[in-house]
Amino acid sequence: MDTPPPTTALVVGAGPGIGASLARALAAEGHRIGLVARDAGRLGRLAADLSGQGADVAVRTADAGRAEEVAEAVRALGADGPVEVLAYNAAHRAGRLTDCGLDELRHAHEVNVLSALAAVRAARDDLVRTRGSVLLTGGGLALRPSAEEGVLSLGKAGLRAAAHILAADLGERGVRVRTLTVAGPVAPGTAFDPDLIARAFLALRDGDEVERVWTGTDAGGA
What is the pTM of this model? Predict the structure, then answer.
């Protein structure tokens, strides 16, 4: 009997903070890792780091401001092993709603919400087959919107709503959808260290709650 291919854990928005930490944590679980981001140089460095630790890594460049590019990348990376984990970590900030042009606002919405949905739709069949999970990086601005960060506040509110809707929709088919609402600035060596956040994300995935608000006060238990 042929050995089934290893499952894939995808990180969309694989930047140097939460995205990289999530990739490392998922690699430690034994997943094949797929990385998606716009910056090819950063992707290459993270892939080399993970490969040096023994992980099987594949990368695709895609602009989260173009939802179809993200969907294509997800489909391509899942071709060699079904997607079991899909983490979406991309975000775009553009200041105040009243100062932001409509084209910029549309671009921000594409990054903050639409590309996340496109990624989930592209991986949906795999996620159902593997009874996998979707991890969406939320933000405290969804709970306490800011005029100064109006565009990102709107985006994080939309992503939070999407997480709860998808949890109800896909949960009926065995897929766990989770969002960690990160209510503070991410910085190494603090209670909002990306490695702590990644561990909290995986603990949330394995529990029953759809959402957890990460305030840093329980960092010791992550």
Answer: 0.93
The Cα–Cα gap between 68 and 179 comes to 23
Is residue 32 a contact partner of residue 80, using CB atoms and an 8 Å limit?
yes
Phi-psi region at 54: left, alpha or beta (left = phi > 0; alpha = psi -120 to 50):
left
Question: Which tokens in the block code for residue 111?
Answer: 């990054």
Give the distance between the most distant pair of CA atoms in the chain: 61
Q: What is the pLDDT of residues 77-134, one digit of tens each?
A: 999 899 999 999 999 988 999 999 999 999 999 999 999 999 999 999 999 999 999 9
Burial annotation 49-77 (CB, 10 A radius, 16+ → b, else e): ebeeeebbbbbbebbbbbbebbbbbbeeb
Band (218; pLDDT cuts 50, 70, 90): low
Residue keyed to tokens 């929709």: 169
Tell me the C-alpha distance between 215 and 14, whole Å.
Answer: 22
